[in-house]
Write a structure and sequence with these properties.
This protein has about 220 residues and is mostly helical. The protein has a single domain, classed as Orthogonal Bundle (Urease accessory protein UreF), CATH 1.10.4190. The chain has helices spanning about 1-15, 30-35, 45-55, 60-70, 75-90, 95-110, 120, 130-140, 145-165, 170-190, 205-210. Helix 3 packs parallel to helix 10 (about 170-190) and helix 8 packs antiparallel against helix 9. The radius of gyration is 17 Å and the shape is globular. The termini are far apart.
Length: about 220
């Protein structure tokens, strides 16, 4: 029986992090589009560096911290509401705010296919990592695996954006995903032990690119 539950948890995690899950993550570049226009991300090597910087020091790290906190707080509606408030407040730009809120709302709506009481505890406009962490915990999906899958999905989204923006090819994208496995595993292990006190970033160029994208002329992405 325990093995059956483990397989069920894995299947749900795979479904939730699948590109086919209807959250609309393909619509966002997280500021990468502006960095490409500015010439800061010119090729596959730069795209790889961009991904690893966000993982270790930027928005993906902060998302992992929020996810871990929400996972541990999945039965506490007040704690989830406070985490959602903090997540929205720390969004570095209007586009980043809309991205995390819209992805979170879409995730909660789609996750309703697997009914669970945790969905009622989540506040409206819950940031994406808060929603993901709480739902995963409710369904008994282990924390480290959830964080790793979430980060892998985030990296995949950025790599896909880079391919569509023409700075890397499909083969380059696969190579970046392969090379990022160790970093994803390391960041996931750190995030499991994290608290909200570990929130913070040192990615000024990425953060300002996300802000400046709001006034970019021709755009493929919503962020």
């Amino acid at each position: 029986m325990s093995e059956d539950r483990g397989v069920a948890a894995l299947l749900r995690l795979m479904a939730w992090m699948s590109p086919a899950f209807p959250v609309g993550g393909f619509s966002y570049s997280g500021g990468l589009e502006k960095a490409v226009e500015d010439g800061r991300a010119r090729d596959a090597a730069a795209l790889h560096g961009w991904v690893e910087t966000l993982l270790c020091h930027g928005s993906l790290w902060n998302d992992a911290v929020f996810l871990a906190h929400a996972w541990r707080s999945s039965k506490d509606g007040v704690a989830l509401s406070e985490a959602a408030d903090l997540g929205r407040a720390l969004a570095g730009s209007a586009e980043r705010y809309r991205e995390t809120v819209l992805l979170g709302d879409a995730f909660i709506a789609a996750a309703g296919a697997w009914p669970h009481a945790v969905l009622e505890l989540l506040p409206k406009e819950a940031p994406y990592p808060v929603a993901t962490g709480a739902v995963a915990a409710g369904h008994g999906v282990p924390l480290r695996e959830t964080i790793a899958a979430f980060l892998h999905a985030g990296v995949s989204q950025i790599v896909s954006a880079g391919i569509r923006l023409g700075v890397a090819g499909q083969k380059d994208g696969v190579a970046i995903l392969a090379a990022s496995e160790g970093v994803i595993a390391e960041v996931a292990a750190r995030a499991v032990q994290s608290t909200l006190d570990d929130l913070g970033s040192a990615t000024i160029i990425a953060d300002t690119a996300a802000m400046r994208h709001e006034t970019q002329g021709t755009r493929l992405f919503r962020s």
